[in-house]
Amino acid sequence: MSEHDPDELRRRWGPGSRASRSTPPAVPDAAEASADTSGAPVDTLAPPSGVPASAQPFPVPPPPGWDADDEGPGSPRGSIRPPDTTGTVDAPLPGQGGARRRGVAAGLVGALVGAVIGTAGTLAVVRSTPAFSGGGSVQAPVVRTQGGDVVSNVVPAVAQAVTPSVVRIDILTSAGTGEDRITREVGLGSGVIYRSDGYILTNNHVVEQASELRVRLANGDSLAAELVGTDPLNDLAVLRVDRTGLPAINLREEPPITVGETAIAIGSPFGLDATVTAGVVSAINRDIQVPEEGGSLVIPAVVQTDAAINPGNSGGALVDANGRLIGINTAILSGTGGSQGVGFAIPVSQAVASADELIEVGFVRHPFLGITGVDVTPEVAARFDLEVDEGAVVDSVQEGSAADRAGLQQNDIIVALNGEPIENMSDLVVSLRRFDPDDVVTLDLLRDGEELRVEVTLDERPR
User: What are the start-end ranges of the E strands in 293-382?
Assistant: First the structure.
């Protein structure tokens, strides 16, 4: 299957799509700004001399007895779960749909489970790390460079410019009521200042378990934060703090992100605030599966990087050599829970589209087909004597859904959507994300050896 143009996967956005922005101030040339830090290690980089107080890093030492190998919520070892090679598209909600018949798809589930058990590396959401004790509209400056070594030239200037736009998010939970109510910190993540009037962009998985949130700015101020809304399917969320004049991060609107260009990650891994790591964009338009309760979630068209990403980096910024946001750090591929040079970020185009809709209406509308299904592979096709060796087998159809109204049935094999081949369930999920509720799509099916073509008017996914 040919790769989709990333613009086809996202709604269009442009310079006018965001409020509370102004012309960025001038920034010294990166080569000049980095004179005092030439050759410094990337992940221990101190800011160049003359950095304003608001941009200074504020590292917090780990608590006594802390061990990076400790298991538990948010720890590297505690965050890992094996990926799922089966998939779902808008599985029936609890209490909806009729009795589920078992057929070819039921056998496929059992046939595929064994492939997961022997996987050496696992794809894991970069979960929050354990908690440690311890004026007018503005915008972060754009860094302009004149070539030279990446570490000694670009990274220090970017760190100076972007660090004030990256925040730490403290995750708190509460128990009890009244005078017996107890609030404690259970983890932390990272976030990006999206708008200068207090809007913060982060990951959904950073905030989904929190009963209370606080945002710590680069100058050390800790502010109570309210949850504006979440987009779980894209692992994004927006918070708001009662503060104006914040340094909103610059966005990469053009040119398109390219493989091999500089990528710099900024966040709070393991509670070490304002940590900077650098690498390159390793790949674009990756479709990844991350574990979630009850199964897995496909996140389409992400950016892959070898810049070190670790627990606590979730929700932080992945920026280019000019300090412009190209992604929101979200996941790693790792066998240990730590960085192994394969990290992933939600692309800025999707982050902007979701954030704007969350700020405007409080939720993001997604299309809804209403089936569950599993992958067709050559081995499975041979075992069950299927007519094709790729596609998605319908396991169940939710009663009253778009799929049900279009006449889809259990054991139908979906082989194409709008004429584009469908290789597996993840491919179907990604392809459907290109559309909006009420759009009409065409599905090519195989049913008992017969080729069928049906039109489906997509529903809006229930919230």
Answer: 295-305, 317-319, 324-334, 343-347, 367-368, 371-376
Residue 370 has what pLDDT?
Answer: 96
434 is a domain residue: yes
Half-sphere exposure in the Cβ direction for 322 (13 Å, CA): 14
Does position 127 have pLDDT exceeding 50, yes or no? no
CA distances to 231, 391, 428, 439, 448 from 414, rounded to whole Å, are 27, 6, 9, 18, 12
Q: Are residues 347 and 388 in the same domain?
A: no
Q: How far apart are CA 445 and CA 387, in angstroms?
A: 11
CA angle (89, 93, 97) in 5-degree steps: 95
The distance between the two most distant Cα atoms of the chain, rounded to a whole number of Å, is 72
What range defines the domain where residue 313 resides? 6-61+127-361
| Listed ranges 133-147, 265-279, 319-333; the one with the highest mean pLDDT | 319-333
User: What is the b/e burial string over 165-198, where b = at least 16 CB atoms within 10 angstroms of the residue's CB?
Assistant: bbbbbbbbeeeeeeeeeeeebbbbbbbbbbbbbb
Q: Looking at the predicted structure, is the pLDDT value of residue 97 above 50? A: no
* 349 and 409, same domain (yes or no): no
Question: Which residue, 278, 307, 302, 308, is CA-closest to 290?
Answer: 302
Highest mean pLDDT: which of 37-46, 117-126, 419-428? 419-428
Helix, strand, or coil (residue 437): coil
Phi-psi region of 400 (alpha: psi -120 to 50; beta: other; left: phi over 0): left
pLDDT score at 273: 82
CA atoms within 13 A on the CB side of 37: 28
Q: What does pTM read for this prediction?
A: 0.66
Q: What's the structural domain count of the chain?
A: 2
Which of 452, 397, 380 is closest to 101 using CA atoms? 397
Domain identity same for 343 and 436: no
Phi, then psi, of 303 in degrees rounded to 5: -95, 130
- Residue (of 74, 76, 125) closest to 344 by Cα position: 125
Boundary residue ending a domain (361, 377, 393):
361
Listed residues 345, 361, 377: the one ending a domain: 361
305 has a pLDDT exceeding 90: yes
Residue with tokens 């086809």: 8
Alpha-carbon span 145 to 164, nearest angstrom: 19
pLDDT score recorded for residue 124: 55
Catalytic residue annotation: 205, 235, 314
* Each residue's pLDDT tens digit, 400-457: 999 999 999 999 999 999 999 999 888 898 899 889 999 999 999 999 989 999 999 9
pLDDT band of residue 129 (cuts 50, 70, 90) is very low
Query: What are the phi and psi torsion angles at 227 (to 5°)?
Result: -85, 115
